[in-house]
Amino acid sequence: MAKPAARVGFIQFCLMLGTLAVLARAAQLQLVEGDHWARKASEARTVREVIAAQRGSIRDRSGNPILVSHEWYRVSIAPEQIIDTAAFSSAVARALGASPADLRRTIRGGKRSIYFHGPFDAVAVQPIRKLPGVHLSPVYPRGGRTNLARQTIGVLDLESGHGISGIERALDSLLSGVPGETVWLTDPSRRTRLASPSRPVRDPIRGNDVWLTIDVKLQEIAEAALDRAIEELGARGGDVIFLDPSTGELLAVASRVEGERSAATAFTAPFEPGSTAKLFTSAALLEHRLVDSTDRVDGENGVWTLRTQRGASHRITDVHIAKEPMTLEMAVALSSNIGLAKFAQRLEPGLQYDMLRRFGFGSHSGVEFPVESSGDIPSLSKWREGFTRESISRGYNFQVTAIQLAAAYGAIANGGILYAPTLVREIRAPGGELLYRHRPEPVRRVISPEVAATLRRYMRKAVGTGSPTQTIEIERHELAGKTGTARKVVNGRYAEGKYVSSFAAIWPADHPRLVAIVAIDEPKGAYYGSQTAAPLTRRILQDAIASRNRALDFDQLATSDSTRRAVGPSARARPLGAERPPVVAVNWPLDADGSARTVRQVPDVSGQPARAAVARLHAEGFRVAVEGLGTVAGTVPGAGTAVRTGETVTIRADAPRLP
Predict the structure, then answer these.
(1) Average pLDDT over every residue of 43-53
(2) Helices 402-414 and 449-462: crossing angle, nearest 10°?
(3) Which of 143-147, 254-258, 581-585 is least confident?
(4) Could you tell me which CATH class the domain 216-596 is placed in?
(5) CA gap 248, 360 in Å, rounded
(6) Average pLDDT for residues 20-28, to the nearest whole number?
(7) What distance in Å separates the CA atoms of residue 358 and residue 418, rounded to the nearest whole number?
(8) Are 351 and 594 in contact (CB under 8 A)?
(9) Is the pLDDT at 591 greater than 50, yes or no?
């Protein structure tokens, strides 16, 4: 049997080991795993709740709200926190428009929480905001002119609150703001929540406000007139665009498609422009001095069969038959397909293709819209002798969008400069601080001021029914315009009986302040542009001008030198402390024969603004596609890659970082 001393020693040894084990475990929990268990304990006794940030508003060019996020609330009730059920039920029911008796029964029914979806405005919830057991969750539904410019502005996803189309999507990171966070103390069952003033609370930061170039009044006029015209003509849809030719600012963009309330066809649906494209072939002829005022071609009594060198034939007809040989001016005024086709034969294909590209066709316009079609121009290798050149001269065999057409006619109106069309005028912080102001962005000089003036003279004679002697005046100022009618392409083929009727207008003809583009999709009955789009354009312009809107800048109508004004500084659009940038003349990459391509390395445009990068890549001879807005993060193919000129380089841009 062991001695007592040995037993005592063994017991002491065991106690020492136990003590060491406890100390080791305590050290492990406090020194090694302390942060982990502290975090677990905090999570067990606290509840973190995200506070939604109020989305920034979308306003017109004058600051009038189009879409504003108002602060509304949803209400949840925690019955276990209620002190006086009767008084509580009476107060809450009165504020939320519920039955006090029903609410009392619900509270006493044993539910852990009671939810009122609402939403309720700030005035309604103010009397119950501080009652024990009431918890408010802010929500920010859109308010304001919710249907105005809907196709352009876009819509929000109801679940995430982020933009899924239009400006809402393109500028989502600027509009959405930064969510806040609050912390509540709770019991282990998480049934009771108490505000915890000792815990940090991050306040939400409201999103920035976006001021569009759109004018509310002009937008309302455009949409109302388009709706009325579609109903009267039985059309499938249509587009109306107002553009300031001196800045590229879009003053109104209205789109309608039967059965599709949110379709932004002005940006996404290309069409063959018909006779509105005759000005671009005329521009190429005049710019390269291939025709003068004495040159004439025969109208062939309205029917001309063109025979190619390979023996094929191509029949061209005219609606307005020329009774005598036509000058180019007469051919445009009469909208003669035969006249333009004959004059176009003086152009090398490369020169005609080059002029279309100079006007911006076949590439994205750069407007701040998340989805945009580039249209389509057949590559020179696909041009057919005796067909393509003549077809393109009268607006067939290539496709444009209404936005591209507006920008191109803007170049004719302002003296020959193509400006990138824009929808965003300003971005302001929640406190009103100006973060960004748009300044006009010249893409290239397309034609000389003299050629632009000549084309406007052609358009003055082309308005109305096509009579060279007829002119139209609005508010004592002459209108310049050109109609267009083209059969519609469906599944790669011309559809029988389906047309797109269009009209392009410049007002006033001598001192242009406004470009208007109207396109009517599949009008029933009369379908010529002179019968459909032209009367609608005149009616819209009369309404717009009668509104005496500041966006039309009536004070400048007395200016005699419209060309100088169009390319000079603009006080309305010039950024604070900055002058308008110089016009950059960028030629499309064509060799002497107008067809050859070369291999070049893609330049490194990382870190540059997206539009500056586009101009650089265009100058190198590449087509450009843009993904995103802001500063360029990279390109596909990457910088240094050998690529043939004329191929597409995709720019990937990040949203601008704001202070």
Answers:
(1) 71
(2) 110
(3) 581-585
(4) alpha beta
(5) 13
(6) 81
(7) 8
(8) yes
(9) no
Determine the topology of domain 597-659 in CATH. Trypsin Inhibitor V; Chain A (3.30.10)
pLDDT, average across residues 116-135: 78
Torsion of CA 247, 252, 258, 259, to 10 degrees: 100
Rg (CA), the chain: 34
Contact status, residue 246 vs residue 511, Cβ threshold 8 Å:
no
> Which tokens is 124 given?
């309604």
- CA dist 219 and 402 (Å) reads 16
Which pLDDT does position 241 carry in this prediction? Answer: 95
- Taking the C-alpha atoms of residue 421 and residue 410, their distance in angstroms, rounded to an integer, is 9
- Measured CA to CA in angstroms, residue 352 lies from 80, 198, 279, 368, 514 at distances of 79, 73, 12, 29, 27
Determine phi and psi for 628, rounding to 5 degrees: 95, 180
The pLDDT assigned to 469 comes to: 39
Tell me which of 98 and 274 has the higher pLDDT.
Answer: 274
Kindly indicate whether the domain formed by 48-211 is annotated with CATH number 3.40.50.720.
no
- In eight-state DSSP terms, residue 274 is G
C-beta separation of 519 from 502 below 8 A:
yes
Find the helix packing angle between 216-233 and 533-546, rounded to 10°.
150
The two most distant CA atoms of the chain are separated, in Å, by 141
Burial of 200 (0-12, 13-18, 19+ CB in 10 A): exposed
Average pLDDT over residues 609-627: 76
Beta-carbon contacts of residue 68 (< 8 Å; ≥ 6 apart): 57, 58, 142, 143, 144
Q: Which two tokens stand for residue 479?
A: 């209108």
**Encoding tokens for residue 486?**
């083209």
**Is residue 616 a contact partner of residue 635, using CB atoms and an 8 Å limit?**
no
Cβ contact 479:473 at 8 Å = yes
The whole-number pLDDT of residue 490 equals: 80
Task: Output the pLDDT for position 534.
Answer: 83
pLDDT at 351: 93
The predicted structure's pLDDT at residue 188: 60
Q: Whole-angstrom Cα distance, residue 474 to residue 484?
A: 21
Coil, helix or strand at residue 540 = helix
Q: Which of 238, 217, 199, 241 is nearest to 148 (CA)?
A: 217
Token readout for 17 is 């080991």
DSSP per-residue codes, 9-71: HHHHHHHHHHHHHHHHHHHIIIIISHHHHHHHHHHHHEEEEEEPPPPPPEE-TTS-EEEEE--
Domain boundaries, the chain: 48-211, 216-596, 597-659
d(CA 386, CA 237): 34
pTM: 0.73
pLDDT band at 594 (very low <50, low <70, confident <90, very high): very low
**So what's the pLDDT on residue 583?**
46
- The beta strands (E) that lie in 284-384 are given as 303-307, 313-317
Q: Are 409 and 273 in contact (CB under 8 A)?
A: no
Overall size of the chain counted in residues: 659
Nearest to 565 by CA among 573, 574, 554, 556: 556
Decide: helix, strand or coil at residue 281.
helix
Dihedral sign for Cα atoms in the order 622, 627, 632, 633: negative
For tokens 């609608």, what's the residue?
536
Q: Is 528 left (phi over 0), alpha (psi -120 to 50) or beta?
A: beta
